[in-house]
Structure formats: C-alpha cells, structure tokens
Amino acid sequence: MSVNDPVIDEQTPAADYTIEQRWERYTDDEHAVWDTLYRRQTEMLPGRAVEEFMLGLDKLDLGSGGIPDLRVINPKLEALTGWSVVMVPHLVPDDVFFDHLANRRFPAGRFIRKPDQLDYLEEPDIFHDIFGHVPMLTLPTFADYMQAYGRGGQRAQSLGRLKELARLYWYTVEFGLIEQAGDLRIYGAGIVSSAGETPYSLTSDKARRLRFDLERVMRTEYRIDDFQRLYFVIDSFEQLLGATQQDFGPIYERFARDATAYGIEAEAEGDVSVEV
Ligand code: HBI
Ligand code: FE
Questions:
Q1: By residue range, what is the domain housing residue 215?
Q2: Mutation test residue for ligand 1: of 18, 90, 97, the one with most atoms within 8 Å of CB
Q3: Count of structural domains, the chain
Q4: How far apart are CA 65 and CA 212, in angstroms?
Q5: Atom 1 of ligand 1 has which residue's CA nearest to it?
Q6: What global pTM score does this model have?
Q7: pLDDT tens digits, one per residue of 208-251
Q8: What backbone phi and psi angles, to 5 degrees, belong to 114?
Q9: Given 120, 160, 237, 262, which residue has the most CB atoms within 10 angstroms?
Q10: Exposure of 258 by Cβ count < 10 A (0-12 exposed, 13-18 middle, 19+ buried)?
Q11: Ligand 1 neighbourhood includes 91 CB (under 6 angstroms)
Q12: Which residue's C-alpha comes closest to atom 11 of ligand 1?
C-alpha cells in the first residue's frame, strides 16, 4: 500500500476536500505504473484522439517521466487557460465538484492504480484524471465549456435536474467523440485513458454513434459497468460550448412535464437521430 493512499492519509481534508499532493511520497513502482499507462495510451492515440488532446499532452509535458508534479504542471496550465489541478482523496460530493469546476479548478484523484489493476478502476485515479482530462483543459474553448458545466451543475442541483445534467458530462467530457473534416476522433477522458475503449469507440459495430443533440443526450441513460453502447459526436468544441451556454430552463421544464427517459436499448426503434 502506498503512503499516498487516501485511506492511510493523516491529513484532515479541507472544506473543499482538497489535499496536498506530496509528490515526493510516490514510490518508484507508482511512477512506473504512470509510465506504463502513458506509453500504452500514447502508442494508440495518434490518429485516434483529437489533435487538440495530443497538443495538450505536449504543452503540459505529461510524458516527461513519472507521475506529474502539480508544482510543475499548474503554472503551465494556469498560463494557458487559467485552470489548475487540485488533489482530492476520492470522488467528492456533487456540489463540491461543481464549485471547483465553476472556479476553473479540476479535482483529480491523488492515488494511482496498482500494477495488477491497469484496466480496472473503481474510482478515478491520477492517471485517468490528469492524463484523461487535463490535456483538453489547455484548449480555451474546452476550458470555458468545463467551467460552464460547473455553473450549470450548481443550477441543475437547485432545480433537481442533476441526473440529466450528469448525462451531459458523461457523453461529452468522459465519452465524447468529434468529427472534424470527415474524420472521427476521440476527446472523452474515459476513452483516451482506456486501452480497450480507444479502438472500440471508433470502430466497434456493437456501438452506435449519433450526432450530438443536447436534449437527446440529457434524456439518454448510460452504463458505468462496460464499454458504452452509444456515443454522441460533436462537430466542434464551439458547438459544445454554445449548446451549454443556452438557458437550460425550458429543457428542464420539458423534462418535468415528460418524465420518461429514452434509455439506451429502448430508443433504437423509431429513432430519428442522425447516425454518424
Ligand atoms: N468527484 N473527484 C471527483 N471526480 C469526478 O469526476 C466527480 C466527482 N464528484 C461528482 C461527479 N464527478 C459527478 O457526479 C458529476 O459529473 C455529476
Ligand atoms: Fe473522468
């Protein structure tokens, strides 16, 4: 067990759930896990991940060897988009999560998965959170989108529509695809940090790929226990930001009138959504 494991951490978490990274305490074995995962993913991502993601990896120098030190990457990220990464021990409550995002702070798990669990994760670790999420935060449009999502989360919570809003995060930030000039690429953190889902998301005939439609996304259930059966494809990050800057009030009112979610399997028949 690592000294950076949250369960044996003697630190009292702050009100915002943040903890110190204490980078010196990561062991050589833990740095080696990062390096293994980094190498495995960066071998398969060129031509599959969106160019903006690959550029973000380089801008932050995330492949310089070992688990990134926040004291090194935060000044770079802050200079690019005003975002920073903070460390948290586990998943944090929704309101805390949204408050961080609304203030351009990304909460990342501090621990790293064990060498025998490279493909298995109960909770987001530092590899998923930093390798998967942080490169996209170097892109100003995406950085603004994430902040808009955080603000939207605070509002959704007060209106009782968190379930619908969380689907937006799931189908974009975690499992989003984008089509640029006829070329289908990955930008979702849950995909780029997964060796299995990277090729599957783009080519498997077990999955459907639909044009992004905000209301449709919010009506669609998702699965957390297996590769996705459905992906939503955006045209541009501007499209995503624009959709999120609109007032969700009228959409939430429609949800309140019509309580049925589409569900993943049920929606296939009579579906008018555009297949990519
Ligand atoms: N906490 N640390 C952490 N990371 C997340 O991705 C996260 C969270 N708390 C809540 C949460 N995600 C989701 O419920 C929101 O997207 C809705
Ligand atoms: Fe994530």
A1: 14-267
A2: 97
A3: 1
A4: 36
A5: 91
A6: 0.93
A7: 999 999 999 999 999 898 999 999 999 999 999 999 999 999 99
A8: -80, 155
A9: 237
A10: exposed
A11: yes
A12: 94
Q: Please tell me if the CB atom of residue 107 comes closer than 6 angstroms to any atom of ligand 1.
A: yes
Mean pLDDT of the residues in the chain: 92
Cα(270) to ligand 2 centroid in Å equals 32
Residue 106 · residue 118 · CB < 8 Å: no
Q: Would you say residue 157 lies in a domain?
A: yes
Give a yes or no: residue 273 inside a domain.
no
- The rounded Å distance from CA 269 to ligand 2 centre is 31
Atom 7 of ligand 1: nearest residue by CA position:
91
Q: What is the CATH number of the domain that holds 43?
A: 1.10.800.10
Q: Residue 44 domain-assigned? A: yes
Per-residue pLDDT tens for 140-183?
Answer: 999 999 999 999 999 999 999 999 999 999 999 999 999 999 99
User: Which of 17, 92, 165 is the pocket-test mutation for ligand 1 (most atoms within 8 Å of CB)?
Assistant: 92
Task: Say if 8 falls within a structural domain.
Answer: no
pLDDT digits (tens, 9 = 90+) for 86-116: 999 989 999 999 999 999 999 999 999 999 9
Would you say the CB of residue 121 lies under 6 angstroms from ligand 1?
no
